[in-house]
Write a structure and sequence with these properties.
This protein has two domains: 107 residues, no CATH class; 43 residues, no CATH class. It is 47% helix and 16% strand. It contains six helices and six strands.
Length: 178
């Protein structure tokens, strides 16, 4: 059984945003695999209101002291958690690839990610694609317009062709003549 690295109570397995993680019922911290943390952070399943409520209810501050990994008991390193307006750290076990997030930090990480322009652009593109798929006439018109587009030149192919030409016919004979 894994124990919380902050308050030493047994961690409970829970499903959060379709991913399994270990949750502390006392301090509300979460232990999750690094790859799952990255996937959870990018998931838009919870609404902004739900994430804000979760962050407010669970956040009690960042642990300043060095924590021990609940799995291997090695010292966890601190990595900055990019949340605007806060100075927070993830506690990461380099050996186990486990991440400890203090209460509310997981929701705050999701909120910070959802505030990025890249996330908003992706959501807008998904919304537009869904709207296009919902209207068969509009989809057909879009497909026709795409089919009429001229083939765009491939700049990488052109650059490769020029480099090959230079290598074979410009520089090589010059070296032979020297």
């Amino acid at each position: 059984m894994r124990h919380c690295p902050v308050c030493n109570v047994p961690l409970e397995p829970v499903i959060y945003e379709t991913h399994r993680l270990w949750h502390c019922p006392q301090c509300r911290g979460d232990l999750v695999d690094l790859s799952r943390y990255k996937a959870i952070r990018r998931l838009p399943q919870k609404s902004l209101a739900e994430l804000e409520a979760e962050a407010r209810e669970g956040f009690a501050g960042d642990t300043a002291e060095s924590l021990r990994c609940p799995r291997c008991h090695a010292s966890m390193s601190k990595r900055p958690l990019s949340v605007p307006g806060f100075s927070l750290n993830l506690d990461v076990c380099e050996g186990c690839s486990l991440v400890w997030l203090d209460g509310g930090e997981l929701a705050m990480a999701q909120l910070a990610h959802q505030a990025t322009p890249g996330f908003r652009d992706t959501q807008e593109m998904k919304r537009r694609a869904e709207a296009l798929s919902a209207d068969p006439e509009r989809k057909a018109a879009f497909d026709e317009a795409v089919a009429r587009l001229p083939d765009a030149p491939n700049p990488f192919k052109e650059a490769f062709r020029e480099a090959l030409w230079d290598a074979l016919f410009s520089r090589y004979p010059y070296r032979i003549l020297r």
